[in-house]
Amino acid sequence: MRESWRWFGPGDPVTINDIRQTDATDIVSALHHIPIGETWPLAAIREHQALIESCEPGQTPLRWSVVESIPVHEDIKLAREGCQRYIDSWVATMENLATCGIRTICYNFMPVIDWTRTDLKYQLPSGGYALRFDQRKFAAFDLYILQREGAERDYTAQEIAAARQLFEQLSEQERQQLTNNIIAGLPGRMTDAYGLETFREMLANYRDIDADSLRHNLFRFLGNVLPVAEKLGVKLAIHPDDPPRDMLGLPRIICTAADLEILFERLPSPANGITLCAGTYGSRPDNDLPAMARQFASRIHFSHLRGVIRDSDEQRSFYEASHLNSDVDIVGVITALLAEERRRAEEGPVSEIFIRPDHGHQILDDVNKTVNPGYSCIGRLKGLAEIRGVVKALEYRN
Ligand code: DNO
Q1: pLDDT tens digit string along 247-262?
Q2: Which structural domain range is residue 9 located in?
Q3: Known catalytic residue: 239?
Q4: What are the pocket residues of ligand 1 if the criterion is a CB atom closer than 6 Å to any ligand atom?
Q5: Would 360 disulfide with which of 26, 82, 106, 380, CB 3.0-4.6 Å?
């Protein structure tokens, strides 16, 4: 298993030299400053790669191995006229990355919003902080802040009453914070940040797009990308929709094992693969993570390891728990990943799966620092250390 670590670039408060101290070997990164839809120039990729890979004599070198993510322009998801130029530009970015030796590419196909949380500083009983998705708060945003047309159809009378009550309890500042968390996006998002009015317009663009048409648009995109990826030896790794279900009237199509079955049945190319994000898939009670890891083993090119604990009375609400103690059987997932690596080793030289500790708690010295929510150093290092322990123990047993 190759231990990787996400780095957001020169503005990331966690520096490359900090990451070096974690003993992770590989970096997951992207050119976040390039506008969505534009090709990443070769020179810019090389420059970023040098920031990651150059080091003083005697220092442990790091490698930029995974891209998370090349963003997919909304026009591609909407299959708008003229979107071919954005598809071509995505492919050109992939070609430039492959020229630099970077061949594992994560992406997602979530319309309008990327990963979404309602609380970025949810206090844990330990005193640290976690990220949280609260379904009731989300409904309050949808119904009473965004006031989305037709939103009431998506909630029961009881949910609407609870959302109203909560909305009334929120201060102006809390409403603003909630709005920002949802429409301005979180670190590493692959969609633009919007104002409320633009956000409404963006949602309206999807009025006539249901799950089937969105899937059709994904397949069209992949139909262009996969043949080139195969030639270049690039592995694509689609990230699930987080949280994994329809939101704000938008269809979401990478949420369950059934969604993945459709994807691979339709496009069996060996370049077509997934990011097994344990925390995302695990925020649905009907996703059995070790079973999914076994079922799609050969398709897993990258894995985000973390867990969530769902609220007992509202399974759509959850907080990000510690890496090993959650509703997700991370030991079961790692067991499946290691078994897959052994299988791959029998087939050929490239057998390792990139994993990274996903989101960590904000604890200790990080509590008073400015951090990218979910991406503070110490919490992720704790997660990595726990994962590393599991890997060692399982490898020893085999
Ligand atoms: C958050 C994430 C997302 C993810 C992109 C993948 O922590 O897992 O930012 O990287 O949506 O394309």
Answers
A1: 999 999 999 999 999 9
A2: 2-114+216-397
A3: yes
A4: 68-69, 106-108, 114-115, 188-190, 239, 277, 304, 359, 374
A5: 380
Residue 200 lies in a domain: no
Q: What's the number of domains the chain is made of?
A: 1
Q: Of the candidates 286, 281, 285, 278, which has an alpha carbon nearest to the alpha carbon of residue 332?
A: 278
Q: What's the pLDDT score for residue 195?
A: 87
Mutate to test the pocket of ligand 1, among 77, 107, 190, 354 (most ligand atoms within 8 A of CB): 190
* Nearest CA, atom 9, ligand 1: 188
Per-residue pLDDT reduced to its tens digit, 83-96: 999 999 999 999 99
Question: Among 107, 112, 88, 93, which residue's Cα sits nearest to residue 28?
Answer: 107
HSE-CB at 10 with a 13 A cutoff on CA atoms is: 6
| pTM for this model (two decimals) | 0.97
- CATH code of residue 44: 3.20.20.150
Catalytically annotated residue among 83, 106, 255, 277: 277
Judge whether 198 lies within some domain: no
Q: Is residue 69 part of a domain?
A: yes
